[in-house]
Structure formats: C-alpha cells, structure tokens
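Why this split exists: single-chain examples teach little about how molecules sit against one another. For that reason, every record in the complexes split bundles all components of an assembly together and asks for one structure covering all of them. Below is a record exactly as it appears in the raw files.
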Amino acid sequence: MSITGIKGMNDILPGDVETWQHLEEQARRVFGAFGYREIRVPVVEKTELFCRSIGETTDIVEKEMYTFSDKGGTSMTLRPEGTAPVIRAFIQHKMYAQDPVSKLYYIGPMFRHERPQKGRYRQFHQIGAEVIGVDDPKIDAQVLAMLSHYFITTNIPDVTLQINSLGCPECRPGYRESLITFLEQYLSALCADCQRRYTSNPLRVLDCKVPGCKEATQAAPAMLDSLCMGCDTHFNQVKEHLNTLLIDYTVNPRMVRGLDYYTKTTFEMVTGSLGAQNAVAAGGRYDGLISDLGGPELSGIGFAIGLERLALMLGEQSIDPPRPELFIATLGEAATKAGFAMLTHLQRQGILVEMEYTGKSLKAQLRRADKLKTRRVLILGEDELARGVAQLRHMDESLQEEVNLEGLEVRLLSKIHGENEILGA
Ligand code: HAM
C-alpha cells in the first residue's frame, strides 16, 4: 500500500502554490513599506514557552498541542502559533538593546491538533506581524491599517474588521468575577466544557459555539462596560484613529480570544464566505507577555493571517502558471544537442524556456508547446542547422519566420526583455 500524508496536513501543489506565492509576496511588499522586517524562528520550542504564554487553560494548551519528548527527555512542542516564539527570540537576543521599537513579521507553518474541516487544519500557515515597544493607541490603528491594506491589495473580498477591548490586569479580574457570578445562574444550561471552565477561563464561555451556551450568555456582562479609565481611554483613541484613517470596523463586545496573553485592543477580520471558520486574521495587544516571559516591561501588539483561509477565498481567481517565452523543438541528434545548449544558456539568463528531453516526434513536441501556452517555438532541424537557420513560430500572432542562428540568442533576449519592460513584468 502506498504511503499517504497525515490527516489535516496538506500538500500545496503547483497551480495552487502560485496563489500562496502571491499572498506571501504581497505581505513582504506591504509590511516592508510599513517598516517591518522578517524574523525566522524554529518550528519547535520548549513546551513551557507555550504553556506560559498562551495559557494553561486554553483549548490550544489543553488539547491541541503536538508535544513530545526528544531523546534527551526535554518536552518539546511544534509551535501552535508564532507570537510566543518571536517574543522568546526578541528577549533571548536582547533585540530591545538595538532599537527601542521592533517591527517584525514571519511566514510559516503552525500546528494544532484540531478536528480538520474546511478552513481548519492540523498544519496550517500564518503570516504574522508583531510590534514591540509602543503602547500608544496610534500603533493599534496603524497595525489595523496595514492589515486592511493587505486585504485590499490581495483582492480578498468580503472581510470586515471587528474590534474589542479585553482590559488589563487592573480591570479584568473584577469583570471576571462578575462574569462568574452571572454564569453561576445558568450553569445547568451550559455544555460540559463550559461547566468545567466557567471558573478557570470564564471568558471562553462567551465564545462557545454550542447553542445552549450562546443563549444562556446572551445577557452576560461585557468587558467593555468594566474597563478601567486607562483601557477605556486607550480604546476610544484607537477608534478615533481608525476613523481618521477611514478604516471601517464594528465593535464586537462579545469577542474573546483563544489565547490568554491579550490585553486591551483585540480584533478579528471575519468573512461570510468560509462557514464556521470565519476568522481570516486575528490579533491584539499583549502588554504583559514580554515581562511574563522574562523580558523587559515592554508592550506588544500583532496579528496573524491564516493563509489557507485566504487561499480558499481566492480559489476562484486562480493564477495561471507563467508562460514559457520559448519552446525549442528539434529534429535529429545534432539539432537536439544544439537546442539543449541554447535552452540552458537562455535559462541562465533568467528566461523561461522549455523543450522535450526525450526524443519525441515534432508533432508531439508542438503539442506540448501548445499545452504550455508558450509564446514562441523555435524549430531546429538537421538541414536548417547545417544552413545556420531555424524556424521561429510566434504563437499569439500565428506567424512563422526563418531566422539566422547567428546572434539569435542575443536578439531573442533583447526582444523578450523589451516586451517584459513594456508589460511591466
Ligand atoms: P489565532 O486567532 O489563534 O491567533 O490565529 C490567527 C489566524 O490563524 C486565525 O484567524 C485563522 O485564520 C488562522 N488559524 C488558526 N488556527 C487555524 C487552523 N487550525 N487551520 C487554519 N487556520 C487557522 C494567533 O495565532 C496569534 N498568535 C495572533 C497574534 C499575533 N496575536 C498577536 N500577534
């Protein structure tokens, strides 16, 4: 029996990969213009890092981590998200000593043992961004401006920004208590999970998808009504800046996040087109995380975009594979040798050129050239080679001309470069 891949972990094949490259390239371009630099961290970290940052009572840490002991007995975990590893690296390399403000982005796979379904996988990919060292609400708005701009430039349709504030260590404990008191009245109506977690992580009950829990918590108090002065002012200023930057948003007072490190501003980009997995990006502020992990008292804010979900949304607008500039069709051994040398030479000049590697009939070679939607075909036969000429067929114009082999590569190169310049390629 042949070996198949692991459930919930997908191959991204040519045809789809172009969409991914487009999404990644746009991220590098947009984030670069906003002053972010790339950081690459390992896919495996010590388990403790995620327990301490994401929170022991979250679904991720309780149920979803790929954790194992390595040969030395150290407990390791495939990263379920990127923020904790980035902050770990930031502290370890004392990046704060080089610059008081760090703007970082990362692209890569994350791992969560969730039940796979459309838009939810066990290996998935995120494009994430983090700003460390700025607590001004302007940066919250700017992070959201960058995220919104990214969605516009990648032509992702139908996404809306929802924002909320989850308070801080000053105001959240009081809110937490009032929420627990509220939930106690409806305990019997809650699902088994929520009955278990209503004291350890009561905010998660507000996010439960079970209809009974949704109904029971309809009149639950909202964090927004319990914000301390500092958090309230911060949230109002974020909204003002968003208005100034003309960024549409709705306030969703019931939004809670599945990771415990958040403080103050939290947000999600949601879509109506992906069913239950409606968050295409999410993030927020995490002002206590850096010091909790042993670093200086610095604030942080960031987000992560789910690449699979974006690719699903772009699925209809699939991107065509690049067209070869030239296909070299040959007849006879000497012509094949000469054609092969020309192929490699042009490829070294950065030009996409194709040929058949095994001896096929001219008809079969032309069929393949057609299939690849090549722009031109160079037909090279023994007799023509001896005369120093070849046939050049321009596929889009259905034209064929006899060309001199002498200096042909140079003429082709300047023509292709010239055309690409005009097309802006
Ligand atoms: P998160 O909400 O857990 O946040 O994930 C962010 C995004 O990753 C989600 O909105 C979704 O698009 C995608 N995602 C999450 N789980 C899956 C899955 N199983 N399959 C497919 N896509 C998924 C974080 O990870 C935070 N680190 C974001 C952040 C950065 N907050 C501050 N900085």
